[in-house]
Design goal:
Layout: H1 2-11, H2 14-23, E1 28-29, H3 30-37, H4 41-53, E2 57-62, E3 65-70, H5 75-85, H6 92-118, H7 120-123, H8 125-128, H9 133-143, E4 150-155, H10 161-166, E5 170-177, H11 180-192, E6 198-202, E7 215-221, H12 230-240, E8 241-252, H13 258-263, H14 273-282, E9 286-287, E10 291-293, E11 299-305, H15 311-319
Parallel strand pairs: 4-5, 4-7, 5-6, 7-8
Antiparallel strand pairs: 1-3, 2-3, 8-11, 9-11, 10-11
Helix pairs in contact: 1-4, 1-5, 2-4, 3-6, 6-11
Length: 321
């Protein structure tokens, strides 16, 4: 009861309710919220602290930026959404907030577009390298389990394309990247698509800030050839994958284009799919046969599953104790 009362008290204030309405539409920095609401930063910080303590919103840090989002789950989140559903669309304050938020998202999108033109491969590598991105994405979708995908984690999310592609089939989706510029581009893309339930975090793929078994699907698209230690990234992905969950990766097969190593800072000239599949088996995953997409730069898709220990085998093991 105390949690519900705390959430009700947190929501029962006009500025905090406006903050929650914005957080429900996607992620914002504290400076974004100052611009949209036209309020002071210290005042908004106090409101956000109260909302976070009540479990209504979540806060995280990206360098000097405070990132705000609606909490992904829990009774406080459900209560907040129920309250927001009762707000009239024509409310003048909320309407003004939406207009300023739309304008800010448009500015973000323009900035991301300018950065993309300056260095396209850094933002959407499949398309920038002339790879058949639509074909690759279609093959990935057909290789994933049908129906709802549960909790998704996208490693090295870049501009958020995979999150955009898969988010509608997830109950919660999280993308991580080391680059704040990449995360800003992803926020612009996902905000414009209305994907408010997607969270973005700055984090290292070799040291994920999540508990074991936190996700039902982990994706790695064009990430491994950029990292110093691909085995560490795969091991972390397997660690946070729940039993019965799926790991899906897209990457380059071995190639001889040395310019990619110099021009685009690739660490590795592709990977033999069979070797990666063997590495997945070594850490307890069960890979499907690799899907190879022919191209001058050949690409492969590798999907693996984390086995569930059968209840029967546990019982048999207990009998021998």
């Amino acid at each position: 009861m105390q949690n519900v009362l705390a959430a009700l008290r947190a929501l029962a204030e006009p500025t905090r309710l406006r903050l929650v309405a914005l957080a429900a539409s996607g992620e914002w920095t504290l400076s974004d919220l100052v611009d949209i609401l036209g309020a002071s930063q210290p005042g908004l910080s106090r409101h956000l602290k109260l909302l976070a303590e009540a479990g209504v919103i979540e806060r995280s840090r990206e360098g000097s930026h405070l990132i705000v989002r609606l909490a992904t789950a829990g009774p406080s989140t459900a209560l907040a959404r129920a309250v927001l559903a009762q707000l009239p669309d024509e409310d003048p304050l909320l309407s003004a907030d939406r207009r300023r938020a739309t304008s800010l998202r448009a500015a973000r999108a323009r900035a991301a577009s300018d950065a993309f033109r300056a260095n396209p491969a850094a933002w959407d590598e499949l398309r920038a390298l002339g790879l058949p991105a639509d074909v690759i994405e279609a093959k990935l979708l057909s290789a994933l389990p049908p129906g709802p995908l549960g909790r998704l984690l996208d490693l090295g999310t870049g501009s958020g394309r995979l999150l955009e592609l898969l988010a509608s089939r997830t109950e919660a989706a999280t993308g991580i990247d080391l680059s704040r510029d990449m995360l800003a581009a992803a926020r612009a893309r996902l905000g414009s698509a209305g994907l408010g339930h997607v969270a973005l975090r700055q984090a290292d793929a070799t040291r994920l800030p999540f508990a074991d078994g936190s996700f039902d699907l982990v994706t790695l698209s064009m990430l491994l050839h950029h990292v110093d230690d691909p085995a560490a990234v795969i091991a972390e992905a397997a660690r946070v994958l729940a039993p019965g969950g799926t790991l899906a990766l897209i990457d380059l097969a071995p190639h001889t284009d040395d310019t990619l190593l110099r021009r685009l800072a690739h660490r590795w000239p592709g990977f033999p799919p069979a070797r990666l599949a063997a590495s997945l088996r070594e850490i307890g995953l069960a890979p499907d046969p690799a899907i190879v997409v022919p191209h001058a730069l050949p690409v492969f898709i590798l999907v693996a599953r984390k086995p569930i220990v059968a209840i029967e085998s546990v019982y048999r093991a207990d009998e021998h104790v």
